[in-house]
Structures are given as structure tokens and as C-alpha cells.
From TrEMBL:
UniProt xrefs under PANTHER family: STEROL 3-BETA-GLUCOSYLTRANSFERASE (PTHR48050), STEROL 3-BETA-GLUCOSYLTRANSFERASE UGT80A2 (PTHR48050:SF13)
Domain Erythromycin biosynthesis protein CIII-like C-terminal: residue ranges: 264-412
Coiled coil: none
Swiss-Prot/TrEMBL keywords: Glycosyltransferase, Transferase
Family according to the record: Belongs to the glycosyltransferase 28 family.
Domain Erythromycin biosynthesis protein CIII-like N-terminal, chain residue ranges per copy: 22-248
Highest taxon of the lineage: Bacteria
Descriptive protein name: DUF1205 domain-containing protein
Amino acid sequence: MRVLFVPHANKAHLHIMTPLAWALRTAGHDVRVASQPEIADAIIAAGFVPVEVGRTRTEMPAFYPGVRPGEAPPVVMAPGERQEMPLQQDFPRDNPLEKLSRASWGFALFSTDEMIADLVALIASWRPDLVVWDSMVYAAPAAATVCGVPHARMMMGPDGITQLRRAARDEGDPLRDWLDRVLTGYGTRFDEDVAVGHFTIDPMPPWQYQPDGLHLVPVRHIAVNPPARIPDWLREPQQRPRICLTLGESHRNGRGTEAPAADLLDAVSGLDAEVIATFNAKQLATIPKLPDNVRVVDFVPLAMLLPSCAAIVHHGGAGTFATAIEQAVPQLIIPGTHWGFQWWGPLAHANGLQQQGAGRFVADADHLTSEALAEDLARVLKDPSFKANAERLRTQVAGLPTPNDLVPALHRLVDQYRDVAAARAGRPA
């Protein structure tokens, strides 16, 4: 088979796709990876030749139209007050059409007309048997539909967009309207598979929330880290429990939606633990002095660091979340601002971990207090049930099909949907 992968222009999203891409390649299939130029180097580092589609953005667009950092209502927390954990299942209740409109606006920015045209030209000339697309890159299913090729969505978290579309069904569907306008320009029309794929590859744990009625194909997440050397201190004997503190790579540019580094560092300053904080200079610019128990590193592979850690505090990103499960490390999750990060995954990750007893939802970034984080860290470090449950979850996900196991299933699914995709495009199979 020929298989085209289309990740979002974000290294963390590319890394989630990489194990499946390599499983297909080592099984003898021809694999290409197409994305915008800003992750071309990351695609090369992952072992593939990048096919650049669309243009590099001159600046990162805001995710949500009409909602910018600083425009959300201020959150005032009373002394000692804790935010109650919201639930992923509940978030579409209020103003689903408004939320869907914001998300669709962002998707249109990620999938420009130029990117769609480039993908149509690539698929028409190379003729892949399957297109595997990042759940944030709708240029790929649009182009695959135009060319009559089966396509599979790959999730990075819960399917919050389907949640919103179902909740807003009676009011409108801006995602459908946008994609239908795009497809009409190519002589075809929107169908539901453009939004959800002919099937959905899901590398998240089975207990994470997903809407009912999706054709989910589970696969085990395999951690992929960028090339890096292991620091000497990571091989030295530990004197105290170790905690990893990270906001991942996606939050390093400071969009105003992430947890403040100062609050995170203040929370860990009094702990009898060694804290490894993967912060860059920009994140530390306003920190006058680091706590004595904090070691700052710009980057260290989590797959190498986490086996030595008693806990990890992070933003809830899919790669960090899944790597911590793979390493059986209890997690404390602080999603970005509540008005900005409900549907991308961190909330569902936190819900599932807390329900499974393997972690804690601390607070959204706009509800965070250093006291709340310190309290939760002390609880996780003291209570052995968190580690025991993290071990249980590791055993559970180890039983999921590996990317290698998935390859024969992809063969069957391509055969199943080849005629359907060809008929949609009005061409012979």
C-alpha cells in the first residue's frame, strides 16, 4: 500500500503518528508525510522525507476567534477555594454553536485553501491507498474526498468536535458549512465521513471519554522523543523523590493560555523532592530566583526521565499524558485556561486519570493556585494507591494492539472503503 500521513504542524502531533508510520514502512509499505514547512525538520528527524504543503505561517494564529488572552472574564478564587473538576461530557452544554464556530475558525486557519490545493495535487499524482490525517487538519479528508481515496482520522484526545456538532445540531454546523464550500469548489459535496474519517484510529486509553457511535480502531501509544542526549545527572543515584514539571513543547511561546511558571515553581518550592522543570528561557524570564530544589533543563526525553519520577505535573498534552501512562507515573494535570482548552484533550485526560485513581485534576490555568498544586502533590506522593493505579493502567494499555498489530487491520479497512471513496469522487475503484 501507499499511505500518506498528514500531521498538524506541531511536533507533538507528528510524534503520535510516527510509530504507525514506521510500522507500515517496516512492513514494506510506501509511506510519505505531508505537512506545512514549519515541521519539515521534525519530519526528517523522525526518519521520513517531508512533503511540504501550504505555506509557513508568519505567526501562530490564536486558536479561537473573538477570544484572546486577557479577554476572558477574570477568575477570582477565595482563599482556600478549589475549582471543582469539570467533565468533558458536560462542556458542550453552554453555547455549543459559539464554541463550534471558534473551533471551526481555527481549523480553517490550519487548513488553508493553498494547503488543500497542494494536497489534492499530491494525492492525485501519487495515488495513495490510504490517507491518515491528524484530527485538526481537515485539509486532508477534503483532499482525499476530492480524489476518491479512503481516509482515516487519528485522534490526539477526545472527539470534542463531534460533541459540539451534536449539541449544536439544531442551531447550525459551521464546520460542515466551511467544508461543503471547499468541496463544492472541487465539484463534490460534504458528507459525514469528511468530518470523522471513514474510520478513526485512537491511540488514547479505552477509559478516556469518546462520544458514542464512532468507528474507533484502537492502537497502543508508543512514545517518540526528538533526538537528544541523556544528561549525566539522570544516571546518578537519586537522593530524594523526583518530580517532572513540564508544559510540553506546544506552550513554550507563551500564548497567555498556559499555567504561569511562577505559580508552578512556587508550589514545588517547599517539597522535599528534586524537581526537574523543562522550561525554556522565555518561560523563566519573570522568575527572579529558582527554588533550591528545582533543576531546569530546556529539554530531556520524557521516556528517559519519567522512569525515575514519582509524579509528573503537566498541561495534559496527549503525548505527555500517554508517555506518563506508559511509564506508570502518577499525573497532576493543569489544562490551559478553561475558556480555551475544554475540547482539545487535557480535560478528558484529567477526568479519566482521576476517575481511575492514577492522578489529579489540579485546576485550569485560570483557576490555579500554588496552594492547590502543593496540596495535590503532597497527596500523590504520600498515598501509594496513585502509583499502584498507574501501574495498573500501564498493564492495561500494554494489552492494546501495537502499531505493528494494526497494519493487517488497515489492509482490511482500505479494502472495505475503497469502493465507497471512489464512488464519492465519481471515479472507478
